[in-house]
Amino acid sequence: MLTADKSPIDLKLDPNLEQSAKRKGKKRGRKPSIKKLINNENTSDSISKINDNFLSESGELESEVDQVTLANMIKIEKKAKKLSLLELTEKTCKWPIGDPATSEFWFCGHPSEQGKPYCEAHVSIAFQPVTTRREKKQNKINS
What we know:
The chain contains six helices and two strands, in the order ααααββαα. By secondary structure, it is mainly α.
């Protein structure tokens, strides 16, 4: 397809030009994602809502994060330094909190563990030994 401003030579140099002219009417980008489990609220209240979503009918926690770790997370997030990306250093916890698409997004900012990107509480969530995860999964299946 020739356009008024493009010569046949231009089309030979740019084989994608003709294809891009055909695609003009089509939308591009990501397909819509599945509804998010977390609301755009970035408070400890949203964590308790998440906790409620993971409770089974018997009241047992169904996620891989246990109650003690979840309680620690709530405590830490209340005291979070709420750093922006530009304020992070190699000595601060880089655990993201909230939805990056909103203005209510920050990083934990507590002192990080030696050689790790996160603070003690977030390391306990992020770096679980494979055997521990398998045991939890097996116990869940057997119950």
